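SEQUENCE-TO-STRUCTURE ENTRY
===========================
Question of interest: how does this chain fold, as expressed in C-alpha cells?
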Amino acid sequence: MAMNRQYFGTDGVRGLYGGPVMNEDFAARLGYAAAIWLAPQTDVVIGRDTRFSSAALEAAIARGLRAGGAMPISLGVLPTPAVSRATRVRGAALGVVITASHNPVEDNGIKFFGPGGNKLKEVEEMRIEQLLPASAPAVDATTLPEADLKAVAEDYLSSMTGLLAAGSLQGWRIVVDTANGSTCATTPAVLRRLGAEVIGIADAPDGRNINAQVGSEYPELLGARVRAEQARIGIAHDGDGDRCVFCDETGTVLDGDEVLTLLARHALSGGFLMNNTLVVTHQSNLGVDSALAAAGGRVVRTNIGDRYVMERMREEGATLGGESSGHIIFSDLSPTGDGLIAALKVIDVMLETCKPLSELRHGLKKFPQASAALAVREKPALATLTRLTAAIHEVEAELGSRGRVMVRYSGTESKIRLLVEGPDASAVEKGMAKLKQALVAEGLLV
C-alpha cells in the first residue's frame, strides 16, 4: 500500500523547503484535503519545530484546514510526542506537526496524528492524498488561534516529571543536547525539576541551526562534554524530540538496540515486560534476539518506521518497542516515540539497579554489522537493479543462516540504505564492499 502513496513516506511528507512538495501552496492543499477527510468543524492542533520555515508552513496548512471547515489551533514550538499528547488530551480530531525531524534545516515536513495521538494509517494518508485539490483554496487571512501555550507545555512537563520520584535526580549531573530543536524548553526543564544539574548543548535555536552537526545524529560532541564535565549520563535528541541517543559516563555512545535491550531485560527481570515481548524493526542487530532469548523473552520484528512498530505492538500485546535509530515507544505512556520518556526510563533503570550505564549496556553482544546510507539520483525499483540484486544474493549465500543483508531506500531522504550483518567482521566488510561496488556499477549514486 505504501507504494501507492505519492507524497507520504515512512514518517509523513518531507522534502526540501521551497521545492515542489514542501512549500506553502502544497501545505495549504494538504490542510484542505485533511479537513475534507475529517468531519467539518473539528479541532485540529498544530505544533512545529524551530526551523525558519516552520511558522510559514504552519500558517499555510492552517489556511487550508480552515478553508475545508476545520478549526486549526496553534500549539507553538513543541516536541512531536507532546503534540501527540495534546491531540489526545484535548480531544482533537487531528494533530499536525511541522517538522523534518533529524533532517538538515533546509528540509521540512508535515506529519499527522489521529484522535488518540496515533500516527495515521497508510490507508488514511492515501485517502488524504486522493482529496488533494489542484490549487490552494482561497481563505481569509485571519490570525491562527493559539491554545493556552503555557497550559499545553505544563501538561506535558508535569506528566513527564511524574515518571520519576520527586527529587530523585539530586546530585546528578546530566549533559543534554537538544539539537537546537523543539526539546530546548522541555527535556532540560523536566530533569531540573527532578533535581538534576543540567549542562546544555545546542539549546539556543535561531531558526537555522537545528540539527547543525548536533543532536542525536552527531553524538560525538555529547560524549566529549560528558567526559569533560564528569557527568553521569548524556542525552541527545533529534530536532523534533521523538528519538533519543545516550552516552554513558565514559562518553561512549549507546545506540537504540543497546537501549532497547537494557530496558527489555530490566523489565523481564521485574516481570513487567508485557507478554515477555520486545518489538523491533528489521534494522535491529541480531544480538538483540539472542540477549532477550537468554533472559526468557522474545523479539518480534517489523517494518522500519515507528508507526509499524506501534501497530505490531498492538497486535502482540507488547508495551515496549522501538528502532535502532533511537525511537523508543512505551505504549502505556505514549502512542508514539518520545525521547524524553526514553531518557527517564533509562535513568529509572540506573536508579533501581544502582549501576552506571557503562555496566548496564553489557546485556547486548552485537553481531558484527556494517551499514551505509548513500545519496542516490533517483529511486528505481530495487528488483530492476540486476547488478545489485546479484550482489545481494551472493552476499546472502556467503553469510548463510547466521547473517543477513538489507537494502532499502530511505522513506524520508534521497538515499539508499545498506546493512550487512554476520558472524565475523571480515565477512561483513567484504559483503558491504560488494554491495557498494554493485551500486557504483548501476550508476545510481550521486
Q: What stands out?
A: The chain has a mean pLDDT of 94.
